[in-house]
Write a structure and sequence with these properties.
The structure is a homodimer of 427-residue chains.
Chain A (H helix, E strand, L loop, with lengths): L8 H14 L17 H16 L3 E4 L5 E5 L9 E5 L13 H16 L8 E5 L13 H7 L6 H5 L9 H7 L17 E7 L4 H5 L3 E7 L1 E10 L3 E2 L11 H19 L3 E9 L6 E2 L2 E10 L2 H21 L5 E10 L2 E2 L2 H14 L5 E6 L4 H5 L5 E6 L15 H24 L3
Parallel strand pairs in A: 3-4, 3-5, 5-15, 6-14
Antiparallel strand pairs in A: 1-2, 2-4, 6-13, 6-15, 7-11, 7-12, 8-10, 9-11
Helix pairs in contact in A: 1-3, 1-12, 3-12, 8-9, 10-12
Chain lengths: 427, 427
């Protein structure tokens, strides 16, 4: 057997840190990131990544949602690329690892293949999925959803989504030069399979003392936009008992979201966004909107937790002398995603090439990922590496250089494993 | 005795409605208004008002805060003007009467004096106070506060206040051509006294079956900006028990503000503004700010209610497994304002010239007004007319044409009463 092909951990980590410093760093002396999708920072990171991939001999395609497909040719005539995808956008106050590690590790894999003059059977693709975070244009995992054709929000609907400044997504794509011609549709721009290296973003690997998570599924999740309606009034002249204060009711409902999730132990429920129609301290708020994010390990549990929360809402609103009402305006969701046995096997076998069995565990992802969408149309799995203290979506997010390198190595080996099996005709 | 001088009620009401339709109407078929201070709509209403006053022979001065003083000369050499002041700006979803009635009634008084060729002893001034609402640039009754020199927020500090778009108040004054040269200081641009006609904005006159309120004081009020600090985390991966969710804590605190005001019956307490640092539904909020508005009939009651609320806050934060903290960032306030006996007498005597004694009542204002600031440096009182169902800061705000006219008549008579007393040397 030939010497095992090794990624260059130093190069991976140096590139990850230096590109984060260049494009989207929140402040000096912090590793916080604000690289909102399709921003100037995102454009510069994308331009750099495209140039790097071209210098490694890749053909680069940009699709209608700005997804970047950098494809290194293989010898097979008819096979589609084995993909390594993730995202380079971040939360407004996020870290350097969520998403970014997956794309940088994919680049490191391409660099390793290139410098070792490896020819694969299938083409190998690096993918940067647009707007995974949904932080600028609401709707997480947006562009992989469009590509999968399984999201309820299709291409045109996504193009029409506005950011807080009223900029349309389509306009933002044009502005940074990433409104591509390639169809954003897996049937026209397909993949053999999809692997994604990602940080866990939770505490489990660290707590269990493991280095690699073999991800077998993504938990189900649903979002509900709730609007509470009351009646405006003057804060000085409207007596307390006759008020219909939408913010007071919304506050009781938000408290109940948390309490119900804690009590039922079915999963997690979060209100991350709140917006009041009123911007005056002297006016009783008449309209308040918030979004509930519910995630459980199975879809029936998501529905059960949602039902428990809305039952508690009904109790509060009927008890409440406040005489407000609430309506659920919209729901989105991402059903539980079961990953493909072949991809899971490729990740597990690859992990065991680098670390001993007691360092590896199967797990479900509690966060949504682009892989949740790709898994609906092509074989998919993910590789998790530990997050310090489980912290993510936070400038303190951290994964050690050793774990970053290990993840990239497992990603390389998973791709090669899968490629070998396709060549053999096993997968 | 000469025939009693009468204002023209039809003209007043027509002018009020047509100017509201022209500048700041919220939508067709609604009487809602959005005439934010120093906006284009406000500029156009101001320009029109200045032109009207000039056509009536007034000299117009604009001060450093954009306050408009339109002064009709009197015969006295050394007396300052008897003022009729209020404001023409509105809440983002306000009505046509709050403030606007007071300025339009003052115009109607000037028109009546002009067409009847009345010469007063003192000069008579119409004043449009800038940014009474504090809805665009935070800080209600801002410009009368500067003029009184008694507000803790002085001229330069007000100029530096930003709106939500980041526009500085000074820039906004310049943009619409209302950054005047006249000193915004009662010692340099003084008044003999200040009368203000205003809608009650509460339910008391209507409930008591009265037509005119003789306002003897403005209740005390304080505002507190509260910031709750938690820790950001991913909404999918952070277990419920280990969260530090600032919005959940803020929700509990906001609920308690209402509950404490209801229970203690000391006054009213409102949270009208809430803001979360986070704009992502997938992130546990780490920073939430809100403003508490507390108003009671006396200053000690304001302090008592504030103390009760903050004691309840401490209990919640110490009980809360959530491990968030809160801080009171800033406080502003307007102490109880006691109006001047001479002005109160002028209003009462004038009301009784138009309606019978059982239609008139003394009352305290539960809302803040520019008169609260003027009362600190010149004799001041206010005239209240009924608000339908007590509704204000709301497009449904309504005062009947008859009550608007009655208020304007009482304003005219109060000014003439005061002028006569000054001429006699009694006041």
């Amino acid at each position: 057997m030939a010497t095992k092909l090794k990624i260059n951990g130093q190069r991976l980590n140096d590139t990850l840190q230096s590109t984060c410093t260049s494009w989207g760093a929140l402040a000096a002396h912090s590793t916080g990131m604000c690289r909102l999708t399709l921003s100037q920072e995102d454009k510069e990171a994308r331009d750099w990544m495209v140039a790097e991939c071209k210098s490694l001999g890749c053909e680069v395609k940009i699709d209608q949602m700005g997804n970047i497909f950098a494809i290194r040719p293989g010898t097979a005539k008819d096979n589609k690329p084995i993909a390594m995808g993730s995202h380079m956008d971040t939360q407004p106050a996020g870290g350097r690892y969520d998403g970014i590690l997956g794309v940088q590790a994919a680049l490191e894999v391409l660099r390793t293949l290139h410098e070792n003059k490896i020819t694969t059977y299938c083409p190998i693709a690096l993918i940067d999925w647009t707007n995974e975070e949904g932080a600028r244009f609401p709707g997480a995992m947006m562009a992989s959803g469009v590509w999968s054709t399984k999201s309820s929000t299709g291409l045109e609907a996504c193009w029409d989504i506005q950011d807080k400044e009223g900029i349309l997504m389509k306009g933002a794509l044009e502005d940074i030069g990433y409104l591509g011609q390639t169809k954003c549709d897996y049937r026209e721009n397909g993949l053999e399979c999809h692997f994604e290296l990602h940080i866990e973003q939770g505490p489990i690997l660290e707590k269990e003392g493991k280095s690699v998570g073999v991800v077998t599924a993504v938990q189900g999740m649903k979002w509900f936009a709730v609007r509470v309606t009351g009646e405006e009034g003057h804060s000085g002249t409207t007596p307390m008992p006759s008020r219909s204060d939408a913010l007071v009711t919304a506050s009781r409902l938000i408290t109940t979201v948390r309490d119900t999730a804690l009590k039922t132990e079915l999963g997690v429920a979060t209100v991350g966004v709140i917006k009041s129609d009123t911007s005056s301290q002297a006016t009783i708020p008449a309209g308040v909107e918030f979004i509930i994010d519910i995630r459980c390990s199975t879809d029936p549990m998501v529905d059960q937790l949602a039902a428990a929360i809305f039952k508690a809402f009904d109790n509060i609103v009927s008890e409440e002398a406040n005489s407000t009402s609430y309506a659920i305006q919209r729901t989105w969701g991402l059903p539980e995603s079961i990953f493909h046995p072949n991809c899971i096997e490729a990740v597990r076998a690859s992990a065991l090439q680098s670390v001993s069995e007691d360092q590896v565990m199967d797990m479900k992802s509690r966060a949504g990922h682009d892989s949740a969408w790709t898994s609906r149309v092509v074989p998919t799995s993910m590789i998790f590496v530990p997050s310090r203290e489980g912290i993510s979506h936070n400038p303190d997010e951290y994964t050690s250089p050793e774990h970053c390198s290990l993840g990239a190595q497992v990603l390389l080996d998973s791709v090669l494993h899968y490629d070998e099996k396709v060549k053999e005709g096993t997968y």
